[in-house]
């Protein structure tokens, strides 16, 4: 199992190098278009087959080095596999690099990249964090990116063997929600108030843009969505970091709701539902999984059904237990707790049942819970 970290490095090309990079970006995008067109007409997206069909022509037509041509074909095939609609055109904004066409020189923090006509050395502007991450490494893949403001970056991928899974002593249950983005079984809350404020702030602007429907309105809409997504991603990074740090400190596994169930779990109002199901939950869970994997912390997906209406003290399950969105009061034993906190405790207990590293499972006489699968380590990011 591997973990992949991406280090974003700012490049500082000379004016001549800029021209060369732009020409290469353009040629690469055109080559992608050409490869996609060939794949479409051939009717398959297997990169080896497509390569057989158009490799020579791509090299001759666009002047790309052999490995850049192969990367362009690979990208086109990958894009076609993802979207049935298929790309109309590739934008000249990024190029994939592998070990043969890219190198890293630690002594002066430069990168060597193959461009159209030759190999060039590009100087960088790196912070201490990036230098520390790159020190002593031999990265084997990277993506050259030109941003909208004209700045060039190299996204360097560092692949590591994931550490062995740690010996866990306990399990942390994490409940994900709207009001509280995440709640752990010890009652720690990560409020969604900031995210909600951000969403509200942009929601009016979005409505206006959608009504207008002009080209510039659509552009603005895209910008707003991106800004909001960045905000939420940042929140998710902060939360996942904190949860994984807590698991590490206490040598615990992390139990989270099984993703498939997140959309169906609640009886949320309709307005909430669209927010419930979204990618943000998937993202938070994914961030937790990625960070946990890098620390060797097992992540256990559990069946999320009824976690919000089951008493985490006596196991009694009834819809009426959930007094309101925020309050939980058990009809059977009178146990009271914040609803999210109670759910997190249930998730923890379900995780414990499934975690092989926990010696004695104390179910406390509770009703047995259904499990959704074996404890697994998160899949590595691609
Ligand atoms: Zn109870």
TrEMBL record:
<dbReference type="Pfam" id="PF07282">
    <property type="entry name" value="Cas12f1-like_TNB"/>
</dbReference>
<dbReference type="GO" id="GO:0032196">
    <property type="term" value="P:transposition"/>
</dbReference>
<comment type="similarity">
    <text>In the C-terminal section; belongs to the transposase 35 family.</text>
</comment>
<keyword id="KW-0815">Transposition</keyword>
<protein>
    <submittedName>
        <fullName>Transposase</fullName>
    </submittedName>
</protein>
<dbReference type="GO" id="GO:0003677">
    <property type="term" value="F:DNA binding"/>
</dbReference>
<dbReference type="InterPro" id="IPR051399">
    <property type="entry name" value="RNA-guided_DNA_endo/Transpos"/>
</dbReference>
<keyword id="KW-0233">DNA recombination</keyword>
<feature type="domain" description="Cas12f1-like TNB">
    <location>
        <begin position="281"/>
        <end position="347"/>
    </location>
</feature>
<comment type="similarity">
    <text>In the N-terminal section; belongs to the transposase 2 family.</text>
</comment>
<dbReference type="InterPro" id="IPR010095">
    <property type="entry name" value="Cas12f1-like_TNB"/>
</dbReference>
<keyword id="KW-0238">DNA-binding</keyword>
<dbReference type="Pfam" id="PF01385">
    <property type="entry name" value="OrfB_IS605"/>
</dbReference>
<dbReference type="GO" id="GO:0006310">
    <property type="term" value="P:DNA recombination"/>
</dbReference>
<dbReference type="InterPro" id="IPR001959">
    <property type="entry name" value="Transposase"/>
</dbReference>
<feature type="domain" description="Probable transposase IS891/IS1136/IS1341">
    <location>
        <begin position="162"/>
        <end position="259"/>
    </location>
</feature>
